Amino acid sequence: MDLKILEIASNTENNRVIDNYTHKSKNKNPICGDEMEISLVIKNNKIIDMGYQCKSCVYCQASVSLLSQSVKNENLDEIKNFIASCEKIFENTKFTLEKKWNNFKELFDKKHESRKECLLLPVRTLLKAIND
């Protein structure tokens, strides 16, 4: 296992319940059983706060931890564009990540392709929460 994955997953500052959430979503990976719940506070088309809880593998935990740190104070349209890029990462298509999302390159790397569904569960759950 990649030590960088463990390091990212160990940051659990946003692993919490947000009581005053404006958006919330639950999602499950049918392949492995990972479960994820994300709650958001959205104001003026920006994510002000994000909390998450999960019963999942370390890859999913690393992905949601990094995501929770990166989306705060970001515009929803920019987040949706980032999520669309994430979906293309493991396909054989060209994609580019904006500089501010570069910290995901290590995590969303072809070498982790076998864990694709684990890594993408948080971004898919986030998109579901935003759209609900």
Question: How would the blueprint of this fold be written?
Answer:
Elements: H1 3-9, E1 23-28, E2 35-43, E3 46-55, H2 58-70, H3 76-89, H4 116-131
Antiparallel strand pairs: 1-2, 2-3
Helix pairs in contact: 1-2, 2-4, 3-4
Entry keywords:
3 strands, Sufe protein. Chain: A, 132 residues, three-stranded antiparallel β-sheet, 4 helices
How does this structure look, described?
This protein has 132 residues and is α+β, with helices and mostly antiparallel strands. It has one domain: Alpha-Beta Complex (Sufe protein. Chain: A), CATH 3.90.1010.10. Helices cover 38% and strands 19% of the residues. The protein contains four helices and three strands, in the order αβββααα. It has helices spanning 3-9, 58-70, 76-89, 116-131; strands at 23-28, 35-43, 46-55. α2 (58-70) crosses α4 and α3 (76-89) packs antiparallel against α4. The radius of gyration is 14 Å and the shape is globular. 33% of the residues are buried.
Within the largest sheet, what's the order of strands?
1-2-3
- CATH level-1 class: Alpha Beta
N/C terminus separation: 35 Å
Major sheet: size, sense and barrel closure? 3 strands, antiparallel
Low-confidence stretches: none
User: Which fold name fills CATH's third level, the topology?
Assistant: Sufe protein. Chain: A
- The 3D shape can be described as globular
- The portion of residues assigned to helices is 25-40%
| Quantity of strands, as a count | 3
CATH-level-2 architecture: Alpha-Beta Complex
**What is Rg?**
14 Å
Please report which band the strand proportion falls in: under 5%, 5-15%, 15-25%, 25-35%, 35-45% or over 45%: 15-25%
Order of helices and strands: HEEEHHH
pLDDT averaged over residues: 90
Note the total helix count.
4
Q: Would you tell me the structural class of the helices and strands?
A: alpha+beta
Oligomer: single chain
Write down the domain tally.
Answer: 1
